[in-house]
Predict the 3D structure of the following.
Amino acid sequence: MDRAIPKVAVVGSGISGAVCASVLATNGVCVTVFESGRGPGGRMSQRKEIIEDGKKVFFDHGAPFFTIRDNDVMSLVCKWESRALVTQWKESFGCVDCVSRKFVDNEKEGTNKMFVGVPGMNSICGALCCEHGVEAKFGITVGKLNWLEDKHVWELIGFDGQNLGQFDGVAASDYYVVSPWFTDVTGKKPPLDVTSNPELALKLQEVSFVSCFALMLAFEEPLSSIPVRSFSFKNSDVLRWAFCDSSKPGRLSSSECWVLHSTEEYAKRVITQFGLRMPSVSLLSKVAEELLQEFQKTVLGIPQPIFIKAHRWDRAFPTSAVAREEKCLWDISKRLAICGDFCVSPDVEGAILSGMAAARNLLDCFNCL
């Protein structure tokens, strides 16, 4: 008698969840991805905006590119390259000193290859969430994950009370499902209760993130005063780095588009003053002007942009790795994996490794049934 095909719910469609879903589906598991946003990507999402003349501009306003050190990840990325989902970004980068207002340490190419999704960073997640065996449901926030002990399955309930189905395993790739941040924003308890697993709960208490503001700018003409396409800021407590998004391969913007990221210190000052609630339009406008002023003060000859908008990343970068060796948090008794960059390292590669580990644990568990 044939064994029933396992069903897994993946919460979150960032790169960690998307990789996990893809690996599971490739190995015969039926996967449903639940994503509260309108599309896939998480911090790898791409922002599309329409400026006054009707032109479209695009911004990778979270993770602009990624590098690879791990052989398993490189093997996976090579497959993505063959599918034209990623390519190398061969551009110069450097650093600007905010005191001298000069660019220093400029290099043609770094020691590590820089990869980007095509035509956007979210293209990778989008393709993985559309593979055979994966069903992606966007605009759905999971409000509760219930472990049904008598049936030995998970039951997922939407934030609106809708029953989302029962599953043999769960991969939680969005930290909101266990985060106090969920309570701060919604006033409700986090969707996943891990108190029954003290070891897991203790690990999750160690997770912390820093926030960041991203500024999206579009200009009528190329910024000829900038000799590089990506650079960091030295001696600034406002800006951390900047990159020319439209210089990446396969980008569709007709204007020159730049993304700037604030420092952790700047974001902390703003949040301390205004709180963690959803930032208002007026607050984001204020932040946008302050970041632009710092940019123009540091790099001479920057004109007024034809488009400007700020975005806040509340959980931009994890400050610790809570499962560096295991690469994900795992409860074998409930077939529960918790994965993300906060498990391994604060970058795209760390998220990929964590998603792969979560999938392997679930597959090993199903193979033993």
Observations:
- The domain at 1-40+129-206+321-369 is CATH 3.50.50.60 (FAD/NAD(P)-binding domain).
- Residues 348-367 form the longest helix (20 residues).
